[in-house]
Structures are given as structure tokens and as C-alpha cells.
Amino acid sequence: MDFSVIFQLRTKKFWWMDVIFYFVISSLIATVLCYLIFLFKDGMISNQINDASSQLQTVGTLQQKEHEAEVLTYQKKIGDFSVLLKNHEFASNVFAFMQAQTLPNIWFSQFSLDEKNTAVQLSGEADDVDSFSRQVAALEGNKYVKSMGSLNSSLGQAAKLDISIGLVLKPTIFDYLPDIAPASDTTLTTDTTSTTPQSPAIPATTTTAPSTTTNPPATPQQSAGTGLQPASGEKLITSFHLLDPAVSGQIDEVNYKISVAVPYGTDIKNLTPSIVASPGTTLLPASLLSQDFTEPINYKVIAQDGSAQNYQVNVTVSPAVAPTGQKSAQTQSYIMTLLVSVGVVVVIVLASVILLIRRKNKKA
If we measure between CA atoms, which residue out of 44, 26, 23, 38 comes closest to residue 339? Predict the structure, then answer.
């Protein structure tokens, strides 16, 4: 074996080997720097997401958060029902389709459904061959049937014909809407109406009522004495929310105060509230009437018995959210620039070292 090549590699140094070596070292350093940069960036973005989540938790009233949680719960339930309906869509449509298309002398006892290929394999019984042929003809001419597969028939028990039909349905079966109207017995109705004897007309008699004087409506005290239902004294505001922005107020039934917190920047000089009060009451000012809420406003609820209750409505504007991302963005930009600069300097230094080594080898 000739070991001269190995001896030359050991005694003579090639400049391109140094280039490859330092290129690999520089690539490794650049990879480590990129990993650290992306790791740092990922950590900063995660902190921003956590800060934004914390800020979102402070937005809105307690009642709004409860409503939001309730809405999310209903959305999850609706999603679950949607999945169930989607899974049973093909089967339910096929059953409804076969219920509408099966002839009276045909009985299907087994269904094999292939949702992926929209294929159906049916097995059952028929009275005779003529019923079976009419059933096949009815299915072949249906707009939802793409093609007919296997058709088998054999003599079964009790002089019945065992049948088997393979169908490939069109994708429009998923949009199938059964149009099955209940049969109406028009013959029976016609016979009944035609044979029912008409009763003779009875002449109407008119009677003249004696004249009476109209009494004034009873007062609440008179109603209590005469057994009539007294006027209600309930006078509550059960719901108070603004239309734009859509914000609900918190009602304090003990102190008869309503607190409403609107987002920052909302013009509270022109807000339209939607108010729900006890049945039969009168509200002053009325609901859906724009108001200036720069100062607290009193709403009076007048009950049926004439009593009244005042509610004080206070609308406050939420403070502005501090720009937390501005300073942190500047810090991130500075650190990113520093890391990139360090990487560029490292690459330049390595390139300079490679050039120096190459020049030295040439001189040698």
C-alpha cells in the first residue's frame, strides 16, 4: 500500500483545508447566534402575549365576563352538536331518502353505508319479481342515484323474494331534503260533508239590555275592599345596558344605583340606554332616549299604585391602556441590532484569519 499521500497530508498543509475548517467553525458560531436570537425573540413575544392576556382580563365588567363565559360555553355545545350532526348527516339523509323511495311491496331490513364513497348496500324482501323490478326502475331514475351496483334475488321463506341492491349515490345526497307530505283521506272528507244533513237555521233573537250607568274605575283602596286585584307596587329596573358601545351596567338594588363602565375614548355626552323595568311601570326619562352622562342621571320608576323609586346612573370611562409595547420594542430592537452586529464582526474576523493563513501558506 502506498502511504505517500498520507505522508504528504501530514507534512504538507493545504490552504483549502484551512478554509473549510474555518468556514465550518464560522457556520457553527452563526448557527448558535441565530438560535440565541430566536430564543430571545420567542421569550419576548411570549411575555407580550402574557401581558396582552392580563390586560384583556381587566377589560369589561364582571357581568360582561360572566356573559362572555356563558357565550363560550354555548359555542362549545353548538360545536359538539355540529360534529354529531355532521357524523350522522349521511346516515339520516340515506334513511330519509329510502323511506321516501321504497315501494309498498318492498321491505329493507339491512343497510350497509359507506360515507366515504357514498355507497349503500341494501338487503330485504319483496313480494314478487315484478315488485323488485319496479323498485329497481324507481331507483335508477332517481336524481340522487349515480349508479346501480350488484342486484341479487333469490327465493326466500314464506314465498317471499330475498333481494339485494347496491347503490352509489351522488354527493348531493348530503343536501337531501325529504319532501314527505302526510296522506290526506279526501274521500272520507268528501263523503262526510256530502252526507251530513244541514240543520235548519234558527232565527236570531235580539234582546235589549236595560240601560246602566258607567261607574268610575275603582281606586286601589276600593279594589282591595271589593275583591279586585290591587295595583302592583313593584318598581324595579331589571336591566340597563348601552347600545353603542354595547356595555351592560351593574344594578345595585340595595342603594338603587347603576354603574356603567365604558371603554376609553367613548363620548359619554350622547349615549342611548336600553332599560327594562318592572311590568306596568312608567320610566322617566324613557328608555332608548339619548342622554348626557357626564354627570349622574336619576331615572324614576313609577309603579301601578303611584309609588316611585329613583335610580342613580353613573357612567365612568375606563382609563387608557398604557403603551407597554413601545419601550419593550425599542429594547428588543437594540438587542437584536447588537446581536446581529456581533455576528457580522465574528464572520469578518474569521474571514480575515482565513485570508492571513492563506497568504502565509503561499509565502511558505
Answer: 38
Tens digit of pLDDT for each residue in 144-195?
A: 888 887 788 788 777 788 888 888 888 877 766 655 433 334 333 334 333 3
Q: Report the C-alpha gap between 322 and 85 in whole angstroms.
A: 46
**Which domains can be identified in the chain, with CATH numbers?**
15-59+332-364 (no CATH), 89-175 (3.30.1360.100), 237-317 (2.60.40.2340)
DSSP bridge pairs for 247: 242
Run of H or E residues at 28: helix 15-57
Which H/E stretch holds residue 216?
none
Q: Identify whether the C-beta of residue 325 lies closer than 8 Å to the C-beta of residue 49.
A: no
Q: Which residue carries 321463506 as its cell?
A: 157
Question: What does the buried/exposed string (b/e) look like for 240-250 if buried means 16 or more CB atoms within 10 Å of the residue's CB?
Answer: bbbeeeebbbe
Q: What is the pTM of this model?
A: 0.34
How far apart CA 7 and CA 100 sit, in angstroms, is 92
pLDDT digits (tens, 9 = 90+) for 25-57: 878 887 888 888 888 888 888 888 888 888 777
Q: Are strands 237-242 and 247-248 parallel, antiparallel or unpaired?
A: antiparallel
